[in-house]
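Dig into this one:

. . .
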Amino acid sequence: MKTYQSCRMIHMPSRRRAAPKVWQMTFSMNFLLYRIFQCGNRKEEKGESVRSLPESLRGVHALNFWRGGFFAFANSAWGRLTNARMSEHKERKTLEERHQMSDLERLRHSCAHVLATAICRLWPDAQLAGGPAVDNGFYYDVELDHRISTEDFERIEEEMKKVVKENQPFQKEVISRAEAMKMAESGELGALGPRNTPSQFKIDLLNDIPEDEEISLYRNGDFTDLCAGPHVGRTGNCKAFKVMSVASAFYKGDKNRPMLQRIYGTCFPNRTQLDEHLERLEEARRRDHRKLGRELGLFCIDEAVGQGLILWKPKGALIRRSLQDFITQELDKLGYSQVYTPNIGKLDLYRTSGHFPYYQESQYAPIPERDAMEKLSQEGASCAELFNGLADGTIEGYMLKPMNCPHHIKIYANDAHSYRDLPVRLAEFGTVYRWEQSGELGGMTRVRGFTQDDAHIFCTPDQLAGEIRQCLGIVKTIFGTLGMTDYRVRLSMRDPESDKYVGSPENWDKAEQALREAAEWLGADYSEEAGEAAFYGPKIDFIVRDAIGREWQLGTVQVDYNLPERFDLHYTGADNKPHRPVMVHRAPFGSMERFTGLLIEHFEGKFPTWLSPEQVRVLPISDKVMDVAAAHRAALAARGVRVTVDETPDKIGAKIRNARLDRVPYMLVLGQREAEEGTVSVRHRDKGDLGAMPFEQFADVVVREIAERHISPMI
């Protein structure tokens, strides 16, 4: 087991000692933070340690720091202390992997060189690093005194057009390491010719190339770059391009290396495909759930609460409640039992399940027991001793719940079960916590705290196939109700070459075969992807295509033979002997946060009536009919409709416009004539004016539309 450097904890003094001054508290906390940071980054060399803190910095505030603020820092330090530091820099591709580029990747890689040529023409002192093809385009990293902004994009594109028009051939040249190093030292690589300064990043990249690997250059016009290729024939093939954005990025993803400017672009075989891509991006921007969520008042994220932690506002909470009511009704029909579990659990629970340490890098740091922490503090224990003790179990602690399954397992294990009791189906909207890097967080779709529509089934081996089919049926019902019929199925299997999986090969074989049979029963096209399984079992994932063609991984059904063994679960069979149950994990939505973010974008905020936070808005033309409007609101609300009255002094045109901006499905325009006749003038946000009808008739139809969860309006 990996161990950590010594970093002395501050001793716990008598509680009668005078409280320290604020500046002392602040300095001490920051100093201890610095020491812990040193522990996480210091090389583990024999005899190297961090000196203990001076006596003058010891005080009651130190323990308070450990109890509270320490853990915020520890979550980032924990990953460094328990795992090798994760870097954005991917492992270097082999020549064989590079030569397996698709035609589109080859085109985009070539366009990256066109961009680099233009950059060097505009800023000859630019130091170029690397420029690969990536999803949806390419980028090139550059070090440059000039700060590139969107105002420079047109200028860069004009220069790129000149390079394309010159139709320069891409020419490969294989050279020796010595020749390549000489060119780099003369500043000729990643440049238009020799310069007074060496090509510093090319020297570093050259040193990364294995001794037995071929070294090659690619030239187009005056531009020469260290490159393994491959490329298209000429720069003239790269006509349909666009410079997209610029961002900052550490060289090789290492924060200890220089900060570079990363210029992103994209390229397609023709202008039509490029225009279609740009239109999809613009449509995605219009539908961005972060933008719509703010405009419609659905959710917010507050820095004081924490990044990646969603605050559901009243309207967003109504959407979430509607989704939860929907699936709860379906589960009640199928015999599921609702349970509730705490958001925290002892480390030993997750050691048994394997979530600790298998998911250690994506978990919040363990929380030591208070009594143990105080005892260690009084003994002058080090930070490293605390971390090591939590890791090896000699110090007891707790952890924010990363998964719901261990808690559900303990509910199952609390009672004796006969084969006649099975299957046991436990469901919970359980909130779990994962430590995501701040740069990976994004609105509701990538968060640190989220609620899963989770369920776990404990069944006999003979019941397994039927339970899997039932789970798949739930997913189909949900997708069908929401009009999400364009999906494919992915079977996530183990990688036979990997050692990250727990359990016997025989049980894995059984689980994978059970999923294949269920996918075939479903009748949908499916694919198998090796290496995508969780460490404890294979799974079926549903990949849904949204309204603008993007794919989202949603519903999951997973077979698990391993956790029942790890927790020694059993039931009494017909032979009166103990038998091991099979466990099925299933979460149709995945998480409420991510699924809601997807739905916001899929519907562009225009939810079907049953899911809309405000389903009907009554729009009185004048105050004279306000009493009738209030009566209509009360009548609809009594029948379960979410309805409001616009009591503002605005003219009716403005009221209609505001309701449409708020994406309210139905508007009831109420004037003097409608009030006297008992009718309403019905408008729909998308279909416009639907004409007048008796109020009771409208109420009957909209109540039915909501109850039956229609995807389209019934009026």
